[in-house]
Amino acid sequence: MLSQIIVNGLLAGLVYTIMALGFTLVFGIMRVVNFAHGEFYMAGAMAVLLFYGHLGWPFFAAVAAGGVVSALIGLVVERALLRPLLKEEMPGMIMTLAVAITMQSAALLIVGPSEQGIPRPFGGTWMLLDARVPWDRTVVALCALVIITAFYGFLKFTPVGLAMQAVAQDRETASLMGIESKRIYVVAFGLSCLLAGLAGALMAPIYPIGPYMGEIVIIKAFVIVILGGLGSVPGAMLGGLLIGLCESAVATMFNPTAALIASFGIVLGIIIFRPTGLMGRAVR
Amino acid sequence: MKTRYVVAAVALLAVVPWILDNRYFFHIATMATIMIPMATSMNLMLKIGQLPLSHGAFMGLGSYGAALLTMRLGVPPVLSLLAGGLIAAAIAGMFGPIFLRIKGTYFVLLTFAFGEIVNLIMQDWISLTGGNSGLYGIPKFAILGFRLTAIRDYYAMGLVFTALSFGLLWAIERSDIGAIFQSINENEMVTRSLGGNAMAWRVAAFVLSSFIAGIAGGVYAFYIGLLTPDAFGMRTIVDLIVMNTIGGPASIVGPMLGAILIVPLPELLREARQYQLLIYGISLGVFLIFFRQGLVGLLRLDKPGDKT
Q1: Do B278 and A109 touch (CB under 8 A)?
Q2: How many CB pairs under 8 A join A and B?
């Protein structure tokens, strides 16, 4: 029972982490709250529905395509809609909300309101201690681990990644060092949408695919980033796993709504006692 | 143009339903008298630089609160209506200091999560709320022994509510308190150095705005007679944001004009309902990039703070 809860929690937590990473990256660098983050997740899943479900591509090719499609939409959105509103928090926020409802209704018009499923690429289960682990979830978790590691390596060891961290820390000083923040914004937003698209693509065989599938995921991403500290990458990782575990425990004992309430309660407690989140830095 | 001319024009417009005396028109007008207070009370929060994504949830709390008090406990509707507003205000007062503890983005994320959770509870607590199949059999509103049965009675009730809430919010906007709110948004440090307790003012704005949302919910409950959780979810929030953005968030007249413009849309677009959100999304984008000040800017209305 306990090991099953932990396994389920970690499996879910890894996907939440990918979502939270992209969200916190955009906030940390651009100071934009991306309400459309869940819709980029949806776009990734829709791409898998098309490429894997209808066109019969290999699953992993479809997942990669899902990430790319989502990232491309993200690049257009950043350039055309968010760039004119940079530095203005409220209009920027409302713009991402507008992007979210536009993407949702576009999906609604294209595929219709009903949820669809695709055949599972991996079947069966295996045992870890006394926990039953489905193979398809295992594959998702392994891919998630690879993605998170790659992302972390990118941020720590590549020049672009280091430049992103510099912009997140201090935009003006970074620009004095010759880092053009606008180009970093493009990379950050595209990368964030790539992560969301990959997460949605990976989850496509597991959850039903529909225009509104991003809504519940984004609440979890919000809760995680507040718990971990807005803008903090290690915080998003820690928060993702913690929320996954907490949810798995409460959902096993009660129901998913109770799980969401419990994680919200934890977040409120964190704000009272440690306002910047577990790993956040002080707000200037 | 003087703001008061626009307000006078809207007041004249309020008479039109009685002249046309058409049931369908009365319905749209009544919904407008519920949504104008919703949009203008959301505007109060926008003025202090916060986007309350919990606004629909507070409307729902007032709505279910008022309906259940009358249905289950037999409380007279007038008291239930007031209690619904007070419930919303009390919950806002309880969570406000936590939501507003950190400046900026945290509020919007927390109120979003709060709103979604309140909505999930309304859907899941079926024994209390009836869940997604709805809460039926809400009695008609009654005041001083007079039962409101016809739609025009509810329109009158909505008008009184709109007039009271608009009067209050307009007075606040033009008073010293309005100036304090504006200064909290623009430069909190200066406000605090002048002795203003920024946190207390923010919580006060949140409580008042949620109180009005709660009352709006109660009016809605007694008028519609059937409550479902989706009436208080993200769709309503999007409507309210569209009203504020298209009307222009700088003055309270903006969201009022926005509400008058947006409320009839779902009825007019009935054939093309699936395009409604698409139209909202695109028009939000257009207004944000090209007409940031909304209709208020286009009409060149004077803004609070302008000396006229």
Answers
A1: yes
A2: 110
